[in-house]
Amino acid sequence: MGLTQHSFFKQPSRHAMLVINSTISIPMSDFDISYARSPGPGGQNVNKVNSKVILRWDVTTTKHLPEHVRKRFLVQWASRVTKSGHVIIHSHRYRDQPRNYADCLNKIREMIRVATIVPKKRKPTKPSAGSNRRRLERKKQNSQRKQNRRAVRDD
């Protein structure tokens, strides 16, 4: 598999924050980053360099996500969350580790940003007078059509 914690570029410090918006920031220490050999592009280096980045994040225990956002995140991204409550994001789009690392952070940032959007509540509306009138006219026409299909009885 080739998983390792070593890298050939300097990661942001564990005190750095992943800023989602003005109210939500998640410390980098919440994320578990590992590296693996990438199946993607890389030329002769592809079998020598661990350029694939794997980011694990425990959504269920993080203290830095508001509860309403956490619930929405878990519902919206249920297929991406493991049974233990971890989200696993990986990137091997680029040939080098720093860009794949940034790509993983952008992916998780976008997932959280989507979960912060509160869906609008639907306002129930009444059918307009015109649509009611048209519906009743169609019902009368259908009724008349079916009346005409009946056999005529001669008494």
Task: Explain what the structure shows.
Helix content is about 35%, strand content about 15%. The protein is an alpha+beta fold and about 160 residues long. It has a domain at about 15-115: Double Stranded RNA Binding Domain. It starts with 16 loop residues before the first strand and ends in a 6-residue tail after the last helix.
> What is the helix/strand order?
EEEEHEHH
Provide mean pLDDT, rounded: 85
The shape, in one word, is elongated
How many E-type strands?
Answer: 5
Write a brief caption for the model.
With 155 residues, the protein is α+β, with helices and mostly antiparallel strands. The protein has three helices and five strands; from the N terminus they run E-E-E-E-H-E-H-H. It has a domain at 17-116: Double Stranded RNA Binding Domain.
Primary descriptors:
155 residues, alpha+beta, Double Stranded RNA Binding Domain, 3-stranded antiparallel sheet, two-stranded antiparallel sheet, 3 helices, 5 strands, elongated
Can you lay out the helices and strands and say which pair or pack?
Elements: E1 17-19, E2 25-27, E3 31-36, E4 52-58, H1 67-76, E5 86-91, H2 97-116, H3 129-149
Antiparallel strand pairs: 1-2, 3-4, 4-5
